[in-house]
Every structure is written in structure tokens, then in C-alpha cells.
Fold:
Amino acid sequence: MRALIAGNWKMNGLTADAKALAAGLKRLSAETELTADLLVCPPFPYLGLVAQELSGSRISLGGQDCHATSSGAHTGDTAAPMLRDVGCSYVIVGHSERRQSHGETDQQVRGKAETALAAGLVPIVCVGETEQERNAGQALGVIARQVKGSVPAGMEADRLVVAYEPVWAIGTGRTATAADVVEVHTEIRRLLVGLVGDRAHNVRILYGGSVKPDNAAELLSQANVDGALVGGASLKVEDFWAIAQSA
Ligand code: PGA
Structure:
């Protein structure tokens, strides 16, 4: 399975930054063949611009969220078919920042993933425990609840990505140890097998949380780690490229 290295730009940068990042990645990808698939998820206002910049490259485009219904009276929200229409092939759903600051539930995240699939997008379903939950020995229980609650039933394995992002490792510079990552990813694989059978072996499970050029190779070489979801380090062309090259 080819690794997927996904850049989540979050709510960062303006036009010039989005242009420069996309152009830099396109230039590097034209010079060097990667063994990993590359994806960038810019803020909504820049999707069209980044799609234009990336056209002719093999770098994919994704949204950072979508609504659970495909159109209607939802002020400020973005529909999955709109993302598809402007050139996206992926969408992140259930990122912990949305679960926390927008109160998104497993059920809502599953609805978003289902709508994304129906629109022809590959949902990247995010799960991850808080520090408190980990300290209380509840990490695997939380992951099980989130996977069972957020992953759409009857999905096709090659049309789904799951990202394990321990909340305490996001943007903090603290990465989970390789052993912790393997434990959780192995559990996620087992849960997915329970949901969809053997097809679960084709689902890409990404790790996210302070992935940097200097820890990427170790994390990406672990069993059941099929790529990375990169926040901060995806805002620098050289760093994101270095992570992609270590896959
Ligand atoms: P980080 O973010 O790499 O800045 O920790 C990862 C994410 O939230 O997707």
C-alpha cells in the first residue's frame, strides 16, 4: 500500500502563502518521484487557487471539513459536492479541533464521512484520545468508541482513510512513542476488520501529532502506519517534502 502524506494547513496563511506552498511542492514533485501519495488540505477560500497551482501535478487536494448534508440552509458550512466540484478528492472529518471547539459527535462525523463518500470524496476520519483519557488508561476504549461511531458502515476500504491523532500530541511538539502508535494502530486495524472484514487491510491508517522531518522516518516505518497527517510542518515546503521523502 502506498503511504499517504497529508498536509493539514488548518487556518493558516493568506493568498501569497497558499500560492507559494503549492508552487513549491509542485516544483519538487516534478523533480523527484515519490513513493508516497501527497495531499494538501488548504483553508476553504484558497482551494480553487491551490487547485490551479497544482494542476498537472500528482498532488491531491482535500478539504478540512464538510457538512453532513449535501446542500441547504447551513450558513457558513461547506458541502462535500462543493469540495469535489473545486477539485478535491479527500476531506478531513472529525478532526479533534472540530470535535472540541465545534462539539462534533461521532454520529455527526459519521454523517460527514457518508456524505463525503456519496460525493466521490475519500473521507479521512480522525480519532484520538486526550491526555486525561490516556493517563486514565482509557486510550484504547476511546479509540474503539470513536472508530465504531465515526466510520461509515459498508464503506469500501480503498475509499477510506483513518487518522490516529492523540490530542496531546497535536501542535505540542510531543509525539507519541513508536510503541504507543503501533499499539493504537494495531487496535484500529482490528476494529476495522470487525467492521468490514479483510478489506480493512486496505484502509490507510495515518498517524498525526507533531510529525516533523526528524521523527517521520521512525513513525512511518512502524507496522500499520500507512502515512501521516501533518499540521505545523506542512506549512513549510522543505519540511513537508522531507517528511514525504521519509515515507
Ligand atoms: P501538528 O498537527 O502536526 O501541528 O501536530 C497535526 C494535525 O492536527 O493534523
Remarks:
- The radius of gyration is 17 Å.
- Residues 8, 165, 170-171, 208-211, 229-233 surround 2-phosphoglycolic acid (CB under 6 Å).
- The mean pLDDT is 96.
- The longest helix spans residues 178-196.
